[in-house]
Amino acid sequence: MAFCTKCGAELEEGAKFCALCGEATEAQSTADSVAETVKEKFNEFNNTADTTNEYDPADIENNKVMAVLAYFGLLLLVPLLAAKDSKYARFHTNQGLVLFLAEIVSSVVGLVPLIGGILSGICSIFLLVVAIIGIVNAATGKAKELPLIGKISLIK
Ligand SMILES: [Zn+2]
């Protein structure tokens, strides 16, 4: 049985707050600090160059869909061919291409017995997270580099 650290009242099982005084229970404090740490780590991970203000707002507005498509595997061919004149779409197409190539490398690594599967699994999770970040950036009008792989420039 747990008790409130502030007023000493008996806590209900799994309660997040004391019913008597409203103090956060230990379980809740731990959950809060874990969430805080995860958020901090993510911000650190995603603390990359943001060059959005070098882009024409009209270009961004008109080519958001193209930019998002760049992160869906072979669909990156659509912005690559159809949005050649959009600097914003190019930015995301480049990142999408790097990501796509990394996914291919990851799949090939996965063919190596035992260790390959593990490495490939870790890579796939990482690449998925990075792809989601790219999609969110593209959809919200940001020309922000992806963590780790955003510095690589394949197309101008
Ligand atoms: Zn209490």
| Overall helicity | 55-70%
Strand content: under 5%
Mean pLDDT over all positions: 93
Number of strands: 0
Number of helices: 5
Give the bound compounds.
Answer: zinc ion
Which series of helices and strands comes N to C? HHHHH
C-alpha Rg (nearest Å): 22 Å
Tell me the major beta sheet.
none
The secondary structure category is mainly alpha
Task: Describe what you observe in this structure.
This protein folds into 2 domains: 1-45, no CATH class; 52-139, no CATH class. The chain has 5 helices and no strands. The protein has helices at residues 26-45, 57-69, 77-82, 87-109, 115-139. Helix 2 packs antiparallel against helix 5 (115-139) and helix 4 (87-109) packs antiparallel against helix 5. The protein starts with 25 loop residues before the first helix and ends in a 17-residue tail after the last helix. Bound molecules: zinc ion.
Task: Quickly list its features.
mainly alpha, 156 residues, binds zinc ion, single chain, 2 domains, 5 helices
How does the SSE layout of this entry go?
Blueprint (H helix, E strand, L loop, with lengths): L25 H20 L11 H13 L7 H6 L4 H23 L5 H25 L17
Helix pairs in contact: 2-4, 2-5, 4-5
The site of zinc ion (ZN) has 8 residues, from loops.
In short:
With 156 residues, the chain is mainly alpha-helical. The protein has five helices and no strands. 56% of the residues lie in helices and 0% in strands.
